[in-house]
């Protein structure tokens, strides 16, 4: 994805996309082109697929809103006072109807609707077949990824996520929720297999195509979907599809993963494409959200999602990932061209995530590395959503759960971290590596704790900051029968006219 996409997004985003969802849930801007005048040429297909990516610029997509769900883990706290975020972290239903997470459902179904429109209309258009296949593959990938994210957040054995018809939508009809999350995962798997069949490898793309879906991204999310489904043999097999492709490898230095120059390295598999270009930048605002509140007077950092002492102490003493992941008082870091000594006047834990600090390190970074608009603090760094290290750990977990040895995969990430190998690594070792390797990322520690059955015990313990004697977040009551999924947004329930019921207990 590059500047060419942004020139077309404002047009493409206005297409009147159709779906099987209730018309009240559709987002159709007034005065925009209708389907009758669209879907005629290859340019329309290009505009349609580019429009699928447009919602990623919403600050709550891969920025503040969605990350509140991840903030529920024991790795971080809200950071500074924010009532809605505090309710979410405490599993208090008072956040239902609030602004941050209320839109997550609609944002993802918006992408699904646009992807379905491509899948429904592009096949009949005469154009280069290889390009058509790629665009169809992208649409399948984005549909599968969106359903995956919706399913593991909102669906369980009692009720799934609505699955809209890709090819024969019925206008004005509310699609009922799927029977259960397994039904959703099965649908995701079909989408991602179609994507993997149609998509090229990333290394066939030219730089102007970077940011578009590719084959190993589909393989990687197939592996993760099968892992969540507890189909460990297939999780291992699709992780191997990535590993044995020869297209990916770990970077030599862990800290280098989180640098602009390595946005598209061999460790990259999928990320939240971001840029500082334009009046407000574009893409994920997570780096700015995690930056010190008001950025020590130089940039509008928001000061949320600050690490805990429990996370800091999880690392082994020689583990190089700790200092690359977390800033503590007294650490030196580059900021606006100067080397400063980190200290915080707002962080409730006293720590800050370091992983996303590189764009703030340059001299005169605004407009080049940082968005000129601090109210939309996108940067030139693409926060990883899936990277090769996680694929190795998916394979390791899948092998351990099958009673197999996973030392090769676990020791690959440990070797890069500068720590010794494990022999006959256990599930506890795997959990440790996922926490240390992927802290502060979209891999989602909260979801890990839930699916492992560890959340209740983990959240029953208070959290601490730099001062080990001070509780910065009290113990919480996590009920596995309720809080294993998040509540369906109230606006979605209301718009369904009573068809959708709230997740049990919420």
Write the layout of secondary structure elements.
Blueprint: H1 3-12, H2 42-53, H3 64-70, E1 76-77, H4 83-89, H5 99-102, H6 104-121, H7 129-154, H8 181-198, H9 215-229, H10 232-243, E2 268-271, H11 286-290, E3 306-307, H12 309-314, H13 321-325, E4 326-327, E5 332-335, E6 338-341, E7 352-353, E8 384-387, H14 388-401, H15 407-417, H16 427-438, H17 445-452, H18 455-459, E9 463-464, E10 471-473, H19 490-495
Antiparallel strand pairs: 1-3, 2-8, 4-7, 5-6, 9-10
Helix pairs in contact: 1-2, 2-6, 2-7, 6-7, 7-8, 7-9, 8-9, 9-10, 9-14, 10-14, 14-15, 14-16
Number of domains: 3
Helix proportion range? 25-40%
CATH class of the largest domain: Mainly Alpha
**Distance between the amino and carboxyl termini:** 39 Å
CATH topology category name of the largest domain? Serine Threonine Protein Phosphatase 5, Tetratricopeptide repeat
Order of helices and strands: HHHEHHHHHHHEHEHHEEEEEHHHHHEEH
Low-pLDDT parts are 3-32
Report on the structure:
With 506 residues, the chain is mainly alpha-helical. The protein has 3 domains: 3-263 and 486-495, Serine Threonine Protein Phosphatase 5, Tetratricopeptide repeat (Alpha Horseshoe), CATH 1.25.40; 286-385, no CATH class; 386-472, no CATH class. The protein has 19 helices and 10 strands. It has helices at residues 3-12, 42-53, 64-70, 83-89, 99-102, 104-121, 129-154, 181-198, 215-229, 232-243, 286-290, 309-314, 321-325, 388-401, 407-417, 427-438, 445-452, 455-459, 490-495, and strands spanning 76-77, 268-271, 306-307, 326-327, 332-335, 338-341, 352-353, 384-387, 463-464, 471-473. A hairpin with a 6-residue loop joins strand 9 (463-464) and strand 10. The two termini are 39 Å apart.
């Amino acid at each position: 994805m590059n500047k060419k996409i942004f020139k077309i997004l404002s047009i493409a985003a206005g297409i009147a996309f159709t779906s099987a969802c209730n018309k009240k849930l559709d987002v159709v801007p007034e005065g925009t082109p209708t389907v009758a005048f669209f879907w005629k040429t290859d340019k329309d297909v290009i505009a349609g697929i580019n429009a699928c990516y447009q919602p990623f610029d919403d600050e709550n997509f891969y920025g503040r809103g969605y990350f509140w769900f991840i903030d529920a883990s024991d790795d971080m706290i809200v950071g500074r006072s924010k009532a809605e975020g505090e309710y979410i972290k405490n599993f208090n239903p008072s956040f239902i109807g609030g602004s941050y997470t209320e839109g997550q459902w609609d944002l993802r179904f918006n992408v699904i609707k646009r992807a379905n429109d491509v899948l429904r209309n592009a096949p009949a258009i005469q154009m280069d077949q290889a390009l058509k296949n790629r665009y169809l593959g992208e649409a399948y990938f984005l549909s599968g990824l969106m359903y995956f994210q919706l399913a593991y957040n909102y669906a369980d054995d009692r009720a799934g996520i609505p699955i809209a018809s890709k090819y024969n939508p019925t206008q004005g009809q509310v699609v009922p929720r799927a029977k259960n999350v397994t039904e959703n995962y099965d649908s995701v798997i079909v989408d991602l297999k179609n994507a993997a069949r149609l998509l090229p490898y990333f290394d066939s793309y030219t730089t102007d195509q970077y940011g578009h879906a590719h084959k190993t991204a589909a393989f990687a999310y197939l592996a993760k979907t099968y892992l969540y489904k507890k189909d460990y043999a297939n999780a291992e097999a699709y992780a191997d599809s990535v590993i044995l492709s020869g297209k990916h490898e770990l970077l030599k230095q862990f800290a280098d993963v989180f640098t602009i120059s390595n946005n598209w390295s061999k460790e990259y598999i999928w990320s939240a494409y971001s840029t500082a270009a334009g009046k407000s930048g574009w893409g994920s605002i997570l780096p700015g959200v995690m930056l010190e509140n008001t950025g020590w007077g130089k940039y509008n950092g928001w000061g949320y999602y600050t690490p805990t002492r429990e996370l800091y102490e999880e690392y082994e003493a020689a583990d190089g990932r700790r200092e690359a992941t977390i800033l503590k008082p007294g650490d030196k870091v580059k900021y606006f061209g100067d080397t400063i000594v980190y200290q915080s006047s707002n962080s409730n834990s006293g720590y800050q995530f370091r992983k996303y600090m590189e764009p703030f390190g340059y001299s005169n970074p605004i407009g080049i590395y940082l968005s000129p608009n601090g109210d939309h603090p996108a940067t030139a760094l693409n926060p990883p959503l899936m990277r090769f290290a996680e694929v190795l750990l998916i394979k390791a977990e899948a092998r351990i759960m099958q009673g197999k040895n996973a030392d090769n995969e676990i020791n690959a990430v440990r070797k890069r971290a500068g720590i010794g190998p494990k022999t006959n690594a256990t599930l506890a070792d795997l959990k440790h590596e996922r926490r240390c390797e992927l802290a502060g990322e979209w891999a989602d520690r909260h979801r890990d704790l839930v699916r492992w059955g560890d959340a209740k015990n983990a959240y029953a313990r208070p959290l601490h900051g730099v001062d080990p004697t001070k509780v910065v977040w009290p113990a919480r009551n996590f009920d596995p029968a309720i809080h294993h999924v998040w509540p369906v947004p109230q606006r979605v329930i209301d718009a369904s006219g009573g068809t959708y019921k709230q997740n049990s207990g919420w």
